[in-house]
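hi! just following up on the protien thing from before. the input was this:
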Amino acid sequence: MKKRILASLLCAVMTAGVLAGCGGTAAPAAGGAAAPAEGAEASSDAAAPAAAEGGDTLVFTWWGNQTRNERTTAALDLYSEQNPGVTFDAQPAAWDDYWSKLSTAAAGNSLPPLLQMDYSYLEQYVSSGLLADLTPYIESGALDASNISQGIMDSGSVDGKVYAITAGVNAPSLLYNKTLMDELGIEVPDYMSVEQFEDICRQVYEKSGVKADLPYMAADNYLPYLARANGVTALFNKEEGRMNMDDPSPMVDYFKVFQDGYEEGWIIGADIHAELQNNSVEQSPLIYFSSPSTQAWCAFFWSNQMAAMAEAAPDDMEIGITTWPSKDPKASMFLKPSQFFSVSSNAGAQEEAAVKVIDFLTNSVEANEILLGERGVPASSVVADAIAPLQDETAQIVTKYINEVVTPNSSPISPAIPDGANEVYDYANQYIDQILAGAMTAEEAAQATFDKGNEIMASKK
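and the predicted 3d structure came back as:
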């Protein structure tokens, strides 16, 4: 059953102009993941996997949720109908499983021909020679990018070559239980500061026992977001092989939120997360709980995930959407490609066929009438305008959020993270566990992340 979902924002109409204003947008993904295994460089004389040696069955893998899986499969079925003889081996997976499997495939030079890529791993996969250069197809017109803004195209480029086509545009989003907040008489404003957010967390916990779900095991999201508010637009200095700051102070705010939540009791703990699938919409404590102690009034997600959250939420729960808290919301906020479509460099005889599918998913209005912007606002302005009248209430709210709340109050996205960055984030996640166990303070966690980050980045120089 479709849910009625409310948001604290003004109505707006999706326009091509807004999409054109999304230039240069990209961001870390939601949740940590494995980079290509060390030494996983593509070899021009290595044998390609069987799936890439020809034939009309294309392996296509992506991460996502049940809603995305169903819509993507339906769109691929449409492609098969329009292109007799072409079939797909669809291989969707949860976020963590996806990157683990992709890393293993990369190490064996056996990546699927068609795959979903994330901005935070794009540079690493390109530098390892694992993705095909799509520039020749764009120049020939086989892959039509004429209705995609240059800024959005640039987000999928490395050293002047295009390796990824944006599947949708989105932004960081705090999703929350609007029904509960109305019952408690608590307003959730846009652009709230960290102090305002923590005050709301205390009020909710005191009145109902319901807690807040901070981005657990996802330091690659909220850590750089809050650091941007402290003037650090990039955490890592690849050229100099160090953290891009003189001391750890820009990172303290991130760890302090977790420390405050732990000490005051209003945060969902590590013990609850241990029983859940991290970064899963369907298992988010916002909608998946058994008691107030396991329930969250809010969760840190991305705007394109609101559709899946709405679908999975209880019928009597309205979901609201607002910005992640920050002491400087405009400095922290950004627009980003929610994900990309890419072709592996070992696609072989199936490379052209894979490119045709990307063109279809990007430019076919009929296909996007099925997808309906679940991956974010479509990159093609023509497609975005065409499907706008067909979107359900949830999709319209997301579009308004992007256009009215985020776009006027955001800053350019941070650069793509270099090799080694995810190792640093993994350590930061471990330090969060230490904080939630009362074994480390925010200042100690920031210092440890700073020291470990300098060590790791120096080793990658």
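Confidence is low (pLDDT under 50) at residues 1-34, 38-54.
The CA atoms of residues 156 and 236 lie 20 Å apart.
cheers
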